[in-house]
Amino acid sequence: xxxxxxxxxxxxxxxxxxxxxxxxxxxxxxxxxxxxxxxxxxxxxxxxxxxxxxxxxxxxxxxxxxxxxxxxxxxxxxxxxxxxxxxxxxxxxxxxxxxxxxxxxxxxxxxxxxxxxxxxxxxxxxxxxxxxxxxxxxxxxxxxxxxxxxxxxxxxxxxxxxxxxxxxxxxxxxxxxxxxxxxxxxxxxxxxxxxxxxxxxxxxxxxxxxxxxxxxxxxxxxxxxxxxxxxxxxxxxxxxxxxxxxxxxxxxxxxxxxxxxxxxxxxxxxxxxxxxxxxxxxxxxxxxxxxxxxxxxxxxxxxxxxxxxxxxxxxxxxxxxxxxxxxxxxxxxxxxxxxxxxxxxxxxxxxxxxxxxxxxxxxxxxxxxxxxxxxxxxxxxxxxxxxxxxxxxxxxxxxxxxxxxxxxxxxxxxxxxxxxxxxxxxxxx
Length: 429
Prior knowledge:
It is built from 15 helices and 18 strands. It has helices spanning about 80-90, 95-110, 125-135, 150-160, 180-195, 205-215, 220-225, 245-255, 260-265, 275-280, 300-315, 325-330, 330-340, 370-375, 400-429, and strands spanning about 1-15, 15-30, 30-35, 45, 50-55, 55-60, 115-120, 135-140, 140-145, 170, 170-175, 200-205, 235-240, 255-260, 285-290, 355, 385-390, 390-395.
């Protein structure tokens, strides 16, 4: 496939992002094989003269099955909000989680997400939905001792190993240090040793969490995880709003990865701030996530990039955080998180791409000098024309109406289910 005459295309230039004009992108199989002008066409050709091509975006932290709960208990703080969520989630069937996940995956693909890292219940159901739509992702069962038997979680994870494919792979999910015992942490470390799977968990999200861990263990959360062997190169730590300087040093020394979810953190009033500027200077790989559709309430990574920059500038009284940094977090850094060569429009990278309309009114006027800024500060997922994963157009004009109709159908089913479920939850309290 040849993407012919892209009006603009983003490409990495060392640590910076450069803008190419009127460029062709050749895709052979699953990879980008050539980038240039007037390339020879020897197969399918897509006219991109009125489009912007950028690398695919990774939503590095989300809970896809929570679209059912979008707009539910939106004014509660984190621990009250979690208890409200858990009171409903205990009653959710695989079918409902499958529908919720499908709605979230449709929203994600239509807004330019090419890969995700998910933490939710019944992940095998979400895995099959993700395979159906052709999106890339990491997901797995969740260790939460109060809700799930750790032995059953481990069994579910092992069963998923045989179901993975090139796009969808398992991850070891731990909800948080405060929601599991030390034996569960040690179990997870043993699983990492045995399987080589990455770890994904919430850490240092609130001040109360940090104080609880200090009372229980006498140490900061990252120090506890270091003691049990969970701080590694394939560890992914999410939130870090209350991380200490010495925890950052541990993360840097061990080569672990971190993920920022600015909108969710502000909405749930978790306080603190995620030190992107310091982490970038220390060489830590930083990704970006929307968190779930119940705590954001959007799965649009474009919105999240803007929020990340604005929050840093507000907290630091500085413009050290640039639009280009946000794009790197969503693209190149995200692909490093999932262990895939991607996040750049260059030969040898996986052909995971997002095409946006160059005629979108909110992006005009547009030129190579302001394109990067416009993509971060002005663009939203509604500007996306097509999403390409592994060399295949999984969303575009050919199936847009089908996606919308299916999303509406699912939305009606979930609303009907919620109208019957939530009164039962309230009565049980």
